[in-house]
Structure formats: C-alpha cells, structure tokens
Amino acid sequence: MFRGIALVAVLGAVGVAPAVAQGGFSVTPWAGAYVPTRNSFSTVTADIKRDNSFIAGARLTFWGKSPVGFELTGGFAPAHVTVAGTTVNADRNTQVFVGGAKLMLGLSPATSRVGFFLSGGPSIIRVGHNVGQESESRTDWGGVGGLGVRIPFSASVGMRLEVEDYFYGGNFDGSKKFQNDLVLSAGLALGW
After folding, report:
1. In the chain, where does DSSP find H-type helix?
2. Contact 16/105 with Cβ under 8 angstroms?
C-alpha cells in the first residue's frame, strides 16, 4: 500500500500533465481476468494450485477539473483451486471479492483524445472459502495500484482498459506471505 501511495506522490511532485477534464461521475461495469501471481503452495498434507479465473465488477469514479480523481471499485471471481494430497483431492472455487478506494492521477495532456491514468489506494480481499480449509473464510487488507487508459466514444461514454495489482499478506499454506493478484479488465464507462 505504501509503494502505491509513494508512487502517486512522486508523480504529483514532478508535475504530471493534466488529464482530460472528465468532470462529474461515471459508472463502469467491467469484466476480465483474475490472475494470482503466486499460485502454487504446498502443505504437509496437500499441494494447492490457484488458477486464473474470470472476474467481473463495477467502478464508481469521480473526476473534477484537476488531474486528480477518486474511485471505488469492486469485483468478484470464482477463483478456482485444485487441491491434491494425502487426505483430500478436490477442485473447488474459493469465491474471491476484491475492492479498493483509489486516488486517480491523470497522465495525459488536456488536449489528448485518449486519457492515461495511474491509481492507488487501500484494498480489501475477501476469500469466501479459504484455500487450505474450505469451511473457513478470510479477509485481508492491503493495497492496490493500477494503470489504465480511457478511450472516449462521446462526451459521456468511453471504453476503459485497466491493469490492477492487489497486494496483501495472504495465508494459503499456514503462513502469511506477500501476495500479488492481478486484475486485467475492460469496461464501458458511462458518465453524467
């Protein structure tokens, strides 16, 4: 989380060019891929493999007349895992929810037709069925950092593509370890 906040502060300090003035709110339903970057774990009794998964969600974004905006985002992925071991062999879904409250920093000049932006802030990652113990759920707090592009079709409609990195201390094999889960998404931004 601190890396993302530091990155936004440094970019703001060096004078990034202002973004296209979006002005107002937008809602973006989106879909994409959920990609865990550490996806294999071993315990005394089992080997666990986390697979890439479909993810879908929505974003609520506010841009003022400055290059800084604010966004709330959330998404849900079935998050399939395969567990192979001495006591259990199973394929199941862990039902992962990711959410974040992000500051947005526009990188494009005011005259640019396409808008590039960075984002970062705190996040929550909720696993409905824990990877090691299916009957347990787990909530982790962390950070999220992202890079995206908005391609306008009109004054109030545009395509939005984004890569986000959710980082947190995940506990998948009995010990807490730093984890990165990527979300690659595309959505239709509807503004007013």
Report:
1. 2-13
2. yes
Question: For residue 190, which amino acid is it?
Answer: L
Q: Give the tens place of pLDDT for each residue, 35-78.
A: 988 655 555 566 777 788 999 999 999 988 888 999 999 999 98
- Collect all residues with Cβ–Cβ distance below 8 Å to 13 and sequence separation of at least 6: none
Which residue carries 């202002």 as its tokens? 18
Q: Give the bridge partners for 181, in sequence order.
A: 36, 166
CA atoms of 144 and 146, how far apart (whole Å): 7
Q: Are the beta carbons of 105 and 84 closer than 8 angstroms?
A: no
Q: Give the tens place of pLDDT for each residue, 167-183.
A: 988 766 566 778 889 99
Q: Is-above-0.70 flag for pTM?
A: yes
Sign of CA dihedral 186, 143, 100, 150: negative
